[in-house]
Amino acid sequence: MKWSWLLITVLAAVAVADDSSEDVLSLAESCDQEACQLPECRCSSTNIPGNLEPRNTPQFVMVTFDDAVNIINIETYRDLLYGRTNANGCSAGGTFYVSHEYTNYQLVNELYNRGYEIALHSITHKTDQEYWRTATTEDMMKEFGDQRKQMELLANIPISEIHGIRSPFLQLSGNATFQVIKETGLTYDCSWPTISFVNPGLWPYTLDYASTQDCVVPPCPTASIPGAWVVPMVSWNDLQGVACSMADSCFFTPSLTDEQAWFEFIVGNFERHYLGNRAPFGYFVHEWYLRAYPAVQRAVARFLDMINNIPDVFMVNTNEVVEWVKNPIPVNEYSSKACKTPVATTCPVSVCGPLSSHHTEMQYWMTVCSSCPNTYPWLGNPLGL
Ligand SMILES: *[C@@H]1O[C@H](CO)[C@@H](O)[C@H](O)[C@H]1NC(C)=O
Ligand SMILES: [Zn+2]
Fold it and tell me: What domain range is 60 assigned to?
């Protein structure tokens, strides 16, 4: 009797250990169109979901910003984004890939309550690319899995409203990036650029089967990770036709003081999508670039003014794009749907500091929507207990 219990305990322990180890992942097979069906599964492809004609397909525009949210960049977000509506009268969206260090969580709460999507960009945002390239699932769970809990406590955002991640420097960690998505119940990653599937553009897809996407910044995932979505970063072409994955990483750009030329540059890239297979169009940028170059910011505002008036173009949160791809409906139906309204949350503000940390001698100040942490929240101690 005693021995059989021992045996069961040992077997159970082995099963648990096996489950969390990385080498149980199986290599993804080439995509089986019959078996891989929406809403759960989609092969990597430039085909429009639901076999819609381009003219019946909503053109989604994903405006995204990366890094810490603070009292300086919030001004740009307020100026550029607040109060915008799409042509169907619903609030226009956007996604913030927020990194933890120096973030003001009261402002993150403000963005969330305005209907923007709050997504994850890691706790440390370490500048060591090698760290991200070789990160294990365990490392990534600490950077992103724990950041989700941190966001829930410090910005008071419902955990069920956090869906996406973007890796610092767009450096994927191979399978590990997507393992974290699966294990923590997130939905998608938006860090994987494509320069091969630009015209026509690659639509979002899942990793149940092998991806056909080009791997610009290896390592890319090759394991089967069912249900984890890839939102490809379809590159722009700069003025010499060189690909750029972020709008502020283009090399041959128009003059940074020439608003009209910048407007035409953005529209030119947009038209490749809008007049093509309508793959979601990304305007992926860092706020500093717009603040440093006011003419570029004015051009962006003009571009957004323009698309906010086109009936089949929708500036939305990235997660809404994934939601549409799961259940594709024609543009006229999509356009007349009721607008989504964010589940409002409050921010009982605490201004905390000086807080010491274990990773540096420095002291931090931070503004949060909770009581103050004891130490500065960091890797392995995301709530600063
Ligand atoms: C991903 O998993 C597959 C299948 O187990 C494996 O062959 C591949 O080497 C892994 N890739 C990385 C970068 O870990
Ligand atoms: Zn970043």
Answer: 49-335
